Amino acid sequence: KANKNVQWDEDSVDYMLANRVRIAFVLVVHGRASRQLQRMFKAIYHKDHFYYIHVDKRSNYLHRQVLQFAKQYSNVRVTPWRMATIWGGASLLSTYLQSMRDLLEMTDWPWDFFINLSAADYPI
């Protein structure tokens, strides 16, 4: 409203509020990155979004922590399958593709966009 030449349509604000965008985040974590994961999760969390977490097959301790963490939220799920991933390798691509397949089959999660993140990512 600061620009006098631009007319603000009040109806468009109502439309935007009524039709919120829902994001499905796929979080791929490994090692002992639970503190990194929690820090990033806290920064991106919103009750209207969805969070699908894959824990590397070689990270059993982290997997147990993530399972406990996910129980606290109705919009967080952990993949029922696990792969051993290598950064930049085909296994990481396979993990993301399987995660996307899973998300497309989750009819109870009405998401609009997909964002993939690792525990090392942090929004700025």
Automatic annotation (TrEMBL):
Record GO biological process: chondroitin sulfate proteoglycan biosynthetic process; heparan sulfate proteoglycan biosynthetic process
Chief location: Golgi
Membrane topology term: Single-pass type II membrane protein
Protein name per the record: protein xylosyltransferase
Lineage start: Eukaryota, Metazoa, Chordata, Craniata, Vertebrata
EC number: 2.4.2.26
Organism encoding this protein: Physeter macrocephalus (Sperm whale)
Record GO cellular component, one term: Golgi membrane
Organism superkingdom: Eukaryota
Catalytic activity: UDP-alpha-D-xylose + L-seryl-[protein] = 3-O-(beta-D-xylosyl)-L-seryl-[protein] + UDP + H(+)
EC class (word): transferase
Glycoprotein in keyword set: yes
Keyword field: Disulfide bond, Glycoprotein, Glycosyltransferase, Golgi apparatus, Membrane, Metal-binding, Transferase
